[in-house]
Design a protein that fits this description.
The radius of gyration is 18 Å and the shape is globular. About 50% of the residues lie in helices and about 5% in strands. Helix 2 runs antiparallel to helix 3 (about 115-130). It has a two-stranded antiparallel ribbon with strand order 1-2. The chain starts with 9 loop residues before the first strand and ends in a 5-residue tail after the last helix. It is mainly alpha-helical. A hairpin with a 6-residue loop joins strand 1 (about 10-15) and strand 2.
């Protein structure tokens, strides 16, 4: 894809087509609250950005050696795959995952990992700000997410209440590379495969 090209995510609307028979796709940017979705730049991160995340993960793993922790639940199960969701649901799920990741890493930044988390937090904040333009505003009334998306959003929302701080930190850190290399790439490329 040429530089400057943008990713256009498509939602199915209830508006009838000219024949009145089927829903018509409409660009996400045409929805109220969507300011333009430009995620193609995140199909892959630079080696320097990935290296900053690796340093943070390595430092976290070193700190785990000094702790006695036991986490039995998996906040991000291996079977979870954004490609199982409809294309329009993927940015919503990724935004929730990224918001939780930012909250956890920001809390960790007040620890001995402070200087190591600076660059990853800066990168994640940048990605999050761009991703928010791809997520339709949540109406106060009307349909709520259902099925897999609802389950994933509920799980992420409840995690800070149900998980210990140490387990939440471990889950987020061990999920970082999947978030950056698989989930983000799925949304950035508009991956249509299911």
């Amino acid at each position: 894809m040429a530089p400057g090209c943008t990713l256009v995510l498509v939602l199915m609307t209830a508006a009838p087509s000219r024949t009145g028979a089927a829903p018509v796709p409409s660009p996400l940017g045409a929805l109220p609250g969507a300011r333009g979705c430009h995620m193609a730049q995140f199909k892959s991160l630079s080696p320097q950005e990935l290296q900053a995340f690796k340093r943070a993960k390595d430092a976290f793993e070193e700190s785990l050696l000094q702790k006695d922790w036991d986490c039995s639940s998996r906040l991000f199960p291996r079977t979870r795959d954004l490609r199982q969701l409809q294309v329009w649901e993927r940015p919503v799920a990724l935004e929730a995952e990224l918001a939780l990741t930012l909250n956890v890493l920001e809390a960790m930044a007040n620890s001995s990992l402070d200087h190591i988390l600076d660059q990853p937090l800066h990168t994640l904040h940048h990605i999050h700000s761009k991703l928010q333009a791809c997520v339709p505003a949540q109406p106060t009334a009307g349909p709520r997410p259902r099925g897999r998306l609802h389950h994933w959003l509920h799980r992420l929302q409840d995690a800070p209440k149900k998980e210990s701080r140490d387990c939440l930190e471990a889950s987020v850190m061990f999920n970082l590379f999947r978030l950056l290399t698989r989930d983000l790439k799925c949304v950035a490329s508009g991956d249509q495969r299911v």
